[in-house]
Amino acid sequence: MSVRTLPLLFLNLGGEMLYILDQRLRAQNIPGDKARKDEWTEVDRKRVLNDIISTMFNRKFMEELFKPQELYSKKALRTIYERLAHASIMKLNQASMDKLYDLMTMAFKYQVLLCPRPKDVLLVTFNHLDTIKGFIRDSPTILQQVDETFRQLTEIYGGLSAGEFQLIRQTLLIFFQDLHIRVSMFLKDKVQNNNGRFVLPVSGPVPWGTEVPGLIRMFNNKGEEVKRIEFKHGGNYVPAPKEGSFELYGDRVLKLGTNMYSMNQPVETHMSGSSKNLASWTQESIAPNPLAKEELNFLARLMGGMEIKKPSGPEPGFRLNLFTTDEEEEQAALTRPEELSYEVINIQATQDQQRSEELARIMGEFEIMEQPRLSTSKGDDLLAMMDEL
Amino acid sequence: MVAADLEGPYEPGVRRADLGLQVHWCVLPFRVLLVLTSHRGIQMYESNGYTMVYWHALDSGDASPVQAVFARGIAASGHFICVGTWSGRVLVFDIPAKGPNIVLSEELAGHQMPITDIATEPAQGQDCVADMVTADDSGLLCVWRSGPEFTLLTRIPGFGVPCPSVQLWQGIIAAGYGNGQVHLYEATTGNLHVQINAHARAVCALDLASEVGKLLSAGEDTFVHIWKLSRSPESGYIEATPLL
């Protein structure tokens, strides 16, 4: 297992999260002058994205992230994204957060699977960063944070061998193993089958550095070619046009990791039909995790590094719905299969007195705002009240 | 299929598999052992699958914190079992005809990068015949002759891509690479005689049917190919023909 996988996992999942939030916020957008007090405007959207991105790329947080370490469980990671999603004035119900995380993970799983070379996962990461920079192009300080992360990525991953990237790829694929949630956009584009498996294309350009299959060359003792055989290999490949750029700016060539939501289509996930493969997933969540203590430490360190900006005065919480209607969101929460529920980790840390004080302090820092929830929260009041983290 | 938990209490049946686990049946002259590798170490079991006869913990002493520590690549050669490691060193274990008195007899130096795979074949009975090949993440192949001390015969350099899988048959080395190619080398000279643009993605695995000389390659491009290996009747050079 590679100990350098976490930054790539975190940044790419974070990128997907931002794409989805951006698309949903745009979909629910109302022009500023026409908006009621409880409706989203363009200004709100930009603010939410700015807040989340600046939290994500906070220097202390990045420092922790880039330290060599094992990947932790999906539950631990989801807790981080839940915190991140709430780094601004936006609130998400459990059902919406679940759907968000499902979409994020399936999207990145797809990108990793389809990477032509293991090293191309770095290009996917750069694609995400390029688009993120587009979201915050009016904020030079945050831009600088993102560029700094870019430099760190280049420094750490630029010199890795193909073998090390292969290990990173395997580590990522193990993380995504047995996740077969169907995503409507993928189903429609026929890149995912009805059983939740992705379609691996057997046509198109070969990876940079690979020859198009179909040729056997034979040589003598002096290295001179003495015979050639061509054969049909079953696919329909063409040579790679050029290599993607690993520079700060450049043509990445690869489309994986770019914003596939920019077409403004609503994206649905399907829970039914994916239960057949949940057996191993269920086992993972039930069996006591011997690494639980380390996970808590990891979370504490990461969250300690996360700086949540506190707004100057009491502000209303805005609620974002990942579904098309509130009723749909409620329905999704009720019908979500047991095995797919992400239980938010309860950080009680009862064993170590000192550690629990530290964690309690960090948890305290996450109380972002005192919500006057009854009158001013956007969206459904009842559900917003259930949003206590 | 076998899965094993290296740290838990002994329990028959399938348990949670350790990550990066490799399993191989090692057929030796007088016994068969089941060998498992992971990022903690190497375990050897009797052929019943549950009597452990040997445990070797990996020494991560000079590994930097960013380096993954693991054992990978298992093969039997005569009464030796060879296991590759993350550092490039190949551990050679001397296996007695029965019992747990297994000894680490040698550590082969030849590779600087993590070992990916090891292939062996019974010695052909002549002098200087290669009977083991080791491969690593840089694509380097080392060709060895087994014995009380293993001798390095040749090195075949890589070209920037890992060699995840290697096979040895009648003096022919078959190597699958991360760029989708399969190469065939003459083991005695190290010369490349056949280069196949076989797959559009990395070759994951090679297997060889030794009675008929058929080589199977599987790639991440979802394809499986079968090749017939032979020698030219005139020149004796290695040749390959696509069958599937």
How would you describe this structure to a colleague?
The complex is a heterodimer of chains A (389) and B (244). With 389 residues, chain A is mainly α. Chain A has a domain at 5-194 and 245-262 and 317-327. Chain A contains 15 helices and eight strands. Chain A has helices spanning 6-27, 42-56, 59-65, 74-85, 94-114, 120-135, 140-157, 162-175, 184-188, 279-286, 292-305, 326-335, 353-365, 373-376, 381-385, and strands at 90-92, 182-183, 203-205, 215-219, 225-230, 236-238, 269-270, 318-320. In chain A, the strands form four sheets. In chain A, strands 1-8 form a two-stranded parallel ribbon. In chain A, strands 2-7 form a two-stranded antiparallel sheet. Chain A has a two-stranded parallel sheet with strand order 3-6. In chain A, helix 1 packs across helix 5 (94-114) and helix 6 (120-135) packs antiparallel against helix 7. Chain A is globular and about 80 Å long. Chain B is mainly beta. Helices cover 0% and strands 48% of the residues of chain B. Chain B has no helices and 20 strands. In chain B, the strands form five sheets. In chain B, strands 1-2-3-4 form a four-stranded antiparallel beta sheet, with no helix packed on it. Chain B has a four-stranded antiparallel beta sheet with strand order 5-6-7-8, with no helix packed on it. In chain B, strands 9-10-11-12 form a four-stranded antiparallel beta sheet, with no helix packed on it. In chain B, a hairpin with a 4-residue loop joins strand 10 (132-136) and strand 11. Chain B is globular and about 50 Å long. Residues 1-18 of chain B have low confidence and may be disordered. Classes of the chains: A mainly alpha (389), B mainly beta (244). Chains A and B meet through helix 8, strand 4 and strand 5 of A and strand 16 and strand 20 of B. Strand 4 (215-219) of chain A pairs antiparallel with strand 16 (192-197) of chain B, so a sheet runs across the interface.
